[in-house]
Predict the structure.
Amino acid sequence: MSVPKPELSRPIVVAALKPAGETRHVTATPAEAAALAQRLGLEAVRDFDAEVTLKPRAKGQVVLRGRLRATLGRLCVVTLEPLDEVIDERIAAVFVPAERAAPGVELSVAPEGEDDEPYEGPGFDLGEYLAQTLAVALDPWPRAPGASLPPVVDG
């Protein structure tokens, strides 16, 4: 079975990164935004934009720091009316070669707020990382302003 191509693919080859680090800007095309919306069960991804700094470290590690911003079309869980959800997240991670992420192998000492992200091969997919970050940032119960459930009446 083949692995489907990520909706927002931006491959990073670790050995090709500048030693001093570099900044990458990722903006979803309309087709990528539509595919992300479908994958995440959203009405729409209106805007998706991220700016990250990638800094290589020893032993194939890469420190990522940046910001992810998105405007999403959602449905209110109470009224089912359309609403916009705005995501504005600071992101930080340390990408680590998978062989160093094996059980019992000490990973990098990531400062608070950074996650270790194992990768295989020569690099990782920045776009897929950003798509997963967006999925985690979603409000599980989006509500329109002022929307509330009626009080529960017993008996």
In short: Residues 11-137 form one domain.
